[in-house]
């Protein structure tokens, strides 16, 4: 397989795969929706300001669990 | 609700990861994901979330410094509505939608992947014209399928011969069958799927849907139950939990929240707000 095809396959796989990066902090570590959550809040704001991105905030009306559930 | 629906949708997560910074927290600062700083910032802009009993909060799209709300998406929104809300926010605030460093560089397929994540399907397809390798062909087939052009997608899939892409092609054929409502073909495509493959949970979820729509409700529930038992923390397990819950409802007594005190297989009290679109009759 050529190097280009390896890169292309990786790009296609990335499109279909689960998210590879997430913050290493409980309880987010086990959330597997595929979203690259950034926690805690200060880190999320810092990252949003550094990258000049809209901050997507999901408040949860109670019931979050230590294994990442909500 | 969002977790078993839009948030576990790959188009939604791809767009979020490409152009947003995503954060969640428990309004109860004593909760596992409690965050006093987040609560303070959110209550400042949404005082109605201050109380201890609130309606399911919406998704807030905020300025990078979290001082302003740029948009809101309902907690019960569909995948399409969430995508539309995110894209509208980017359109109205282009200052926060600029390409990241290096994003405009790269090979045609790498740039096409980025455009696809931004839901700019036509531009992605144009970039891939004339790129004659199997990975590009697979991506073109995927984009054509998403555009509703199943026949053209199938023709492209027939051209792919790279054995390393065999599973990806098989899953793309399954997606075409799902979209077309061809449930017998869907079940056949996903039978005996390699259990150790990264997409095994996705295959199990859709096999359950095939069984469900073919009328084999108990088989579907068994498939989803096995999926959840083995892969509790997986986006397809989240979706299977909702599907199992709804498939377990009596014909004459649809409920959105468990009234008996029991919980879903993943320990949720139920799924309120809308019926599971994957179980809707075609």
Could you describe the 3D structure shown?
- The complex is a heterodimer of chains A (70) and B (282).
- With 70 residues, chain A is an alpha+beta fold.
- Chain A has two helices and one strand; from the N terminus they run ααβ.
- Chain A has helices spanning 3-16, 41-51; one strand at 54-60.
- Chain A is elongated, with a radius of gyration of 16 Å.
- Chain B is mainly α.
- Helices cover 49% and strands 6% of the residues of chain B.
- Chain B is built from twelve helices and three strands; from the N terminus they run H-E-H-E-E-H-H-H-H-H-H-H-H-H-H.
- Chain B has a two-stranded antiparallel ribbon with strand order 2-3.
- In chain B, helix 6 (134-146) packs antiparallel against helix 7 (150-158), helix 10 (200-213) packs antiparallel against helix 11 (217-230) and helix 10 (200-213) packs parallel to helix 12 (235-247).
- Chain B is flat, with a radius of gyration of 21 Å.
- The chains are: A alpha+beta (70), B mainly alpha (282).
- The interface between A and B is large, with 56 and 79 residues.
